[in-house]
Amino acid sequence: MSEEKERSWLWILLPVFFFMPGGIISYFALKDSDQRLSKMSLYLGAAVTMGMIPIIVISSIMMAGMFFMDGMPFDMYIDESYMHEMDHNMEQDMMVDESMYEMTP
After folding, report:
1. Sequence-ordered list of residues with C-beta below 8 angstroms from that of 66, at least 6 positions apart, any chain
2. I need a surface site. Which of 50, 78, 85, 105 has the fewest CB within 10 A?
3. 3-state DSSP assignment of residue 76
4. How confident is the model over 42-93, as pLDDT tens digits?
5. Is 104 domain-assigned?
6. Residues contacting 45, CB < 8 A, separation 6+
7. pLDDT score of 88
8. How far is CA 17 from CA 12, 52, 73, 86, 89, in A?
9. Measured distance CA(21)–CA(15) in Å, rounded
10. Phi, psi torsion values for 31, nearest 5 degrees
11. Which long-range contacts (CB under 8 A, 24 or more apart) does 50-54 make?
12. Angle between helices 13-30 and 35-67 (to 10 degrees)
């Protein structure tokens, strides 16, 4: 019977940040010294991966939907009618200084 020694709980951070690959790495790094922690890190890596899949899919669908909308949220910065509603000083700040492009090195 092999003797198990207690390892640091910081190994749990590997699957938290690197999902399943981090769980597999920590499993193989700890399997001979602390079997309980190695199995826990492998299961945690699988759980975090499964939990992140819906978040990634939903956010990808939402981002793809933004590109097919008629008006994107940042269109207000491009729309000229928005510029007329702003204060005159703000309008001057947002305009590009054309003299910058005329400068010669």
Report:
1. 72, 73
2. 105
3. helix
4. 999 999 999 999 999 999 888 887 776 655 555 555 555 555 555 555 555 5
5. no
6. 14, 15, 18, 19, 20, 21, 22, 23, 24, 26, 27
7. 56
8. 9, 11, 31, 44, 46
9. 7
10. -65, -30
11. 52/19
12. 140
Q: 84 in a domain, yes or no?
A: no
Structure tokens at 28: 């193989």
Q: Give the residue numbers spanning the domain of 45.
A: 9-66
| Beta carbons within 10 angstroms of residue 65's beta carbon | 9
Measured in Å, how far apart are the chain's first and last C-alpha atoms? 77
Six-digit token string for 35 = 């079997």
**How many domains would you assign to the chain?**
1
What is the residue type of 55?
Answer: I
Residue 77 falls inside a structural domain: no
Alpha carbon distance 60, 10 (integer Å): 31
Average pLDDT over residues 21-48: 94
Residues 6+ apart with CB under 8 A from 54: none
pLDDT at 28 over 90: yes
